[in-house]
Amino acid sequence: MEKESKAEANKKEEMEAQKEAKADSEPDFMLESLNNPSFDTLFHDTSEFELAADRLEQVLKSMETLLTDVEDLRSQCSYQASELMQAASELRQQQEELKESYTEMAREMQDIVDSVEELFSTKTAFEAKEKEMQKLSRQF
To answer: What is the pTM of this model?
Structure first.
C-alpha cells in the first residue's frame, strides 16, 4: 500500500508540476473578448478578415502572374526590337547600294546619251559632206 500511495503522491506532484509549467507558459491576463458576449461577432469579423486575406492572396497571385507576363512581353519586345534594328540596318545598306547602283546607271545612261548625240552629230556631218560631194560631183 505504501508503494501505491507513493505512486499516487508522485503522480500528484507531476500533475502539479505540469500545471505550474503550463501556468508559467500562459499569459497572466485573460482576453476580454473571450468573456465578451459579442464573441460571435468578433469571430464573424475574423472570418471577414480571413476573406480579405484570401482576396489579398488572390490579388498577390494575380500580380505575380501579371509580372511574369510583363517580363515575358519585355523579353519578346526586346527580341523583336533587335530583329527590327537588324532589318533596318540591312535596309539602310540596301538603300546605299541602290543609290550607288542608280548613280552608276545614271552615269552610264549619260554616256549613252552623249554617244548617241555624237553619232547624230557625225551622221549630220557625214550627210552634209555627202551632199557637198554630190554637189561637187554634179559640178564636174
So the answer is: 0.45
What amino acid occupies position 19?
K
* Residue 36, C-beta contacts closer than 8 angstroms, at least 6 positions apart: 42
Separation of alpha carbons 55 and 47, rounded Å = 12
- Residue 29 DSSP code: S
Kindly report, residue by residue over 34-50, the tens digit of the pLDDT: 555 555 555 556 788 88
Length of the chain: 140
User: Are 33 and 42 a contacting pair, CB within 8 Å?
Assistant: yes
pLDDT tens digits for 64-83?
999 999 999 999 999 999 99
Residue 39 makes CB contacts below 8 A (sequence gap 6+) with: 33
Residue with cell 508559467: 24
CB of 64 closer than 8 Å to CB of 56:
no
- Phi, psi for 37 (deg, rounded to 5): -65, -20
Q: Which residue has the cell 554616256?
A: 111
